[in-house]
Task: inverse folding
């Protein structure tokens, strides 16, 4: 996956703790990690944005050790549940969790330990069979407690990293700062697409809300940041447009739909300051990125997800599965490309399955295409409710409400939509706006004030939790 010796003398990683590794040193650590593995097997990586986690990840990818990336802070009960389902031979975990999770320590690096697991004899027969093409598993979006994993091959990951590097023009001079968790598919792809080109990863576990993040970013002359919609909503509130960031060249956004007005603001800022703001679209199942909005179309088509990445293609189908040729007709967005995952796994035996998708991904997103071939997401197939027999798109409702307050999220059941906000006194404004936009009676909407909108660590809204709050 990574040809580390090609960039031997260059810096591969700089952390906010003062640690540095050249590509040669990183390669040496990879070899030591691999030698510590007594035999082949499945590896759980409980990752954090720390040097030890990144070294273990790179080692697994380079030495083709099939692995799953998980949040290093995952609740013990959930970790034990996943272990009981997948029976990993090894765990690469924060050393502080060794006594909590167990296993025999066979190697240590930094703040991480490699644990060898031992199981009862009845499991021995099932734990050896893994598809040789399988390299990495990721949790499906928003389901870190679920056993359902996305199965990715080296070809899936490498083709996507190369496509990203091509359209973003990534080279060895880039210095991306980690604004996202590495276990999140978008955060992982930032690492992959830069390491294959000899760039320097600026590794931090601080968030954009912390002063230490900005000190590290400025001191290390970060050239790019990546974020989900929440990231850029927060950056605006932090006064990002007034910051002095002469080294920052590229801002990338994926992980959900950013309000089109916000996109235009960031694009205008980028153009005025010699930077670029690139909207992208992806899913974990596509390793993860599928589209980008070319910078020369960013102002004109600020509501679009753009066009397919190099090597991929989009098309739209109707409810019967027939391709929609006409422009401006909604249907399900389908993607075709070498980065489409092999399939899913829900138990250890599924790791031996082959390629079930054959390069085609039904995204579950509703979209249309304009006359120039640019695509626009209008909602999720599963983010709909019936309002007195009429289909209502919850994502569209949310975008309406964001014109009043950014701190909002929508969930619902048939005949009732609940709008969660963090600010009091907005109920009438929101209801009046939605009545005008939808034509529905005011009793169709309930506005609830909450202390905060629940989010996953990636910054995405936790809609399952919202649903439970209704």
Result:
């Amino acid at each position: 996956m990574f040809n580390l010796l090609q960039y031997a003398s260059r810096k591969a990683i700089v952390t906010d703790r003062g640690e540095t590794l050249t590509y040669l040193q990183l390669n040496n650590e990879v070899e030591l990690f691999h030698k510590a593995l007594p035999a082949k097997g499945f590896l759980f990586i409980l990752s954090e944005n720390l040097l030890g986690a990144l070294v273990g990840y790179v080692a697994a990818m380079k030495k083709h050790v099939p692995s799953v990336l998980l949040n290093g802070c995952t609740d013990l009960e959930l970790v034990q549940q996943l272990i009981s389902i997948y029976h990993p031979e090894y765990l690469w975990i924060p050393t502080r969790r060794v006594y909590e999770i167990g296993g025999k320590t066979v190697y240590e690096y930094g703040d991480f330990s490699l644990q060898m697991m031992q199981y009862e004899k009845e499991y021995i027969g099932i734990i050896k069979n893994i598809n040789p093409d399988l390299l990495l598993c990721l949790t499906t979006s928003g389901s870190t407690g679920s056993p359902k994993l996305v199965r990715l091959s080296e070809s899936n990951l490498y083709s996507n990293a190369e496509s990203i590097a091509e359209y973003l023009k990534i080279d060895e001079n880039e210095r991306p700062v980690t604004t996202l968790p590495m276990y999140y598919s978008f955060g992982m792809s930032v690492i992959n697409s830069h390491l294959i080109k000899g760039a320097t990863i600026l590794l931090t576990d601080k968030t954009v809300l912390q002063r230490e993040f900005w000190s590290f970013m400025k001191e290390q002359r970060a050239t790019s940041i990546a974020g989900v919609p929440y990231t850029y909503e927060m950056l605006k509130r932090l006064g990002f447009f007034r910051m002095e960031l002469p080294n920052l060249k590229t801002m990338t956004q994926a992980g959900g739909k950013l309000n089109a007005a916000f996109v235009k603001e960031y694009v205008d800022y980028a153009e005025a300051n010699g930077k670029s703001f690139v909207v992208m679209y992806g899913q974990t199942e596509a390793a993860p990125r599928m589209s980008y909005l070319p910078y020369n179309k960013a102002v004109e088509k600020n509501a679009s997800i753009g066009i397919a990445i190099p090597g991929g293609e989009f098309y739209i189908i109707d409810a019967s599965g027939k391709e929609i040729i006409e422009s401006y007709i909604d249907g399900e967005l389908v993607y075709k490309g070498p980065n489409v995952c092999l399939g899913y796994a829900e138990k250890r035996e599924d790791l031996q399955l082959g390629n079930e998708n054959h390069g085609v991904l039904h995204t579950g997103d509703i979209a249309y295409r304009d006359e120039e071939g640019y695509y626009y997401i209008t909602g999720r197939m599963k983010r709909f409710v019936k309002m007195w027999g009429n289909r209502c798109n919850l994502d569209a409702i949310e975008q309406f409400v964001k014109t009043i307050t950014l701190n909002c999220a929508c969930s619902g059941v048939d005949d009732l939509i609940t709008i969660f906000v963090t600010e009091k006194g907005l109920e009438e404004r929101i209801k009046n706006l939605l009545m005008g936009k939808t034509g529905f009676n005011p009793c169709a909407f309930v506005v609830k004030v909450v202390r905060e909108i629940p989010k996953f660590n990636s910054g995405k809204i936790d809609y399952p939790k919202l649903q439970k709050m209704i």
